[in-house]
Write a structure and sequence with these properties.
The structure is a single chain. The chain starts with a helix and ends with a strand. The chain is of the alpha+beta class. The strands form 3 sheets. A 6-stranded antiparallel barrel has the order 3-12-15-14-13-16. The protein has a 4-stranded antiparallel sheet with strand order 4-11-9-6, with no helix packed on it. It contains 3 helices and 21 strands. Helix content is 37%, strand content 33%. The longest helix is centred in the first third of the chain and has 61 residues.
Length: 419
């Protein structure tokens, strides 16, 4: 009988242990499941370290903004007209210049030799012209002398013929002598006519020979003038009234024709060259209104050109300045420009989030009514501007959202705000 009691007692203890173990495992499983269902504790964010903004309803002026500089509307590039070597730089960039202001001096021994050679040839051609004139005048005088002698002989022959005819009528002269006198007069008449024609032809020949030599002299004079102008061009002048932008060459440098020597601009005619991010430039069009801040006044303007190329993520947009330039405005002055794209009427809008892009959906922390917590909310953005974005979904007027960079809390859907 005692053996049976001990056996029942051991079995009951074993059953009790099994029950306690099962209950323990159930409790542990329940606790684990409960903990897994709990949300992580919301991190605390100092309100002073974030930038909140309130959603508004109304009209939104879309605009884009970019930094840039004032540049001249027209820049004169002064090229070298002849090969030469730079011997002097007379001015520094930024100097005011007039059309005849000398900027650089070049030297060209070859050109100087060419000028001397052409000048010598011109003098030789002029001397040749005088020699030809003297020779032709001498030949003309000789020809006139011959003609005068023939004319004299002809007049004597005619007088003799008339006398012989009178004597022949009186029977005092035979017919043979009369015939000889008549033939002599006729021959001298023909010779006089030929000598007269020869003299006329010679006069025309004189004019032709003199004209040929004069043309040669005119050609030498034109070449001499050209070489003299090229020699004068070795003193490089500004050509316009303005400001010297840049001297492109150094003393001692050898330049060839076409090499840009200097740049001169008119400081009274400036435009703004703004660098707009290529992600925002797609809506910029020619004719849109703009405002350019020179740090000494705001000037209204109009978009006149959009560069088709992108450089380092920006596109250059030229803005014509429609107002008077403020004091101190000059080329290369840094400016800040805003271009108005369009006016959106009766839309929801909010300040520009850090990572917001037009026509996209992003997550923002929306501040709860109690002001103690902010919940992550999906927000649909519409068109963007410099400082604002259109809201197309996810928010309502009066909602307050955080626009700051919240990437440090990407793993949380709720944060606690410590004011």
């Amino acid at each position: 009988m005692p053996d049976i009691v001990r056996k029942d007692f051991a079995r009951k203890r074993r059953i009790k242990r099994i029950i306690f173990s099962v209950l323990g495992l159930a409790v542990v499983a329940a606790i684990t499941y409960g903990l897994s269902r709990l949300e992580p504790a919301a991190p605390t964010v100092e309100m002073g370290t974030v930038f909140p903004d309130t959603v508004k309803f109304g009209n939104l002026m879309r605009s884009v903004r970019g930094l840039g500089t004032l540049v001249p509307e027209s820049i004169i590039f002064i090229p070298a007209k002849r090969e030469g070597r730079v011997v002097r730089r007379l001015l520094l960039p930024g100097s005011e210049v007039q059309p005849n202001t000398v900027l650089l001096e070049l030297s060209s021994p070859q050109l100087e030799q060419e000028v001397f050679n052409v000048e010598t040839q011109l003098k030789a051609d002029a001397a040749d012209l005088e020699a030809i004139r003297v020779r032709l005048e001498t030949e003309r005088l000789d020809q006139e002398s011959v003609r005068a002698q023939v004319e004299s002989d002809y007049e004597q022959a005619k007088a003799q013929l008339q006398a012989d005819e009178q004597l022949a009528k009186a029977g005092l002269l035979d017919q043979l002598t009369l015939a000889k006198s008549r033939v002599t007069a006729q021959q001298l008449g023909i010779r006089l006519k030929l000598e007269t024609e020869r003299l006329e032809i010679r006069e025309k020949s004189v004019e032709a020979q003199l004209a040929t030599q004069r043309a040669k002299i005119e050609q030498s004079q034109a070449l001499y003038g050209l070489r003299k102008q090229e020699l004068a061009d070795l003193q490089v002048r500004a050509g316009i009234s303005g400001v010297l932008q840049q001297l492109e060459v150094e003393v001692g440098q050898l330049v060839t024709p076409g090499t840009v020597l200097a740049r001169v601009s008119d400081p009274q005619r400036l435009k703004a060259a703004l660098r707009i991010p290529e992600t925002q430039v797609r809506d910029v069009q020619i004719g849109q209104h703009a405002e350019v801040d020179t740090r000494n006044g705001i000037i209204p303007g109009t978009v006149i050109r959009v560069d088709p190329a992108s450089i380092e993520g920006t596109v250059t947009v030229d803005v014509q300045l429609d107002g008077d330039l403020p004091r101190g405005a000059r080329p290369d002055l840094s400016v800040d420009g805003t271009i108005e794209l369009e006016r959106l009427v009766d839309v929801l809008y909010v300040g520009r989030p850090v990572y917001g892009q037009p026509e996209s959906t992003i997550s923002l922390f929306k501040v709860q009514p109690d002001g103690q917590y902010a919940l992550r909310t999906q927000v649909e953005l519409g068109k963007g501007s410099v400082n604002y974005f259109e809201i197309r979904g996810g928010l309502q007027e009066g909602d307050q959202v955080i626009l700051s960079d919240m990437s440090a809390w990407d793993n949380y859907d709720r944060i606690r705000l410590n004011r």
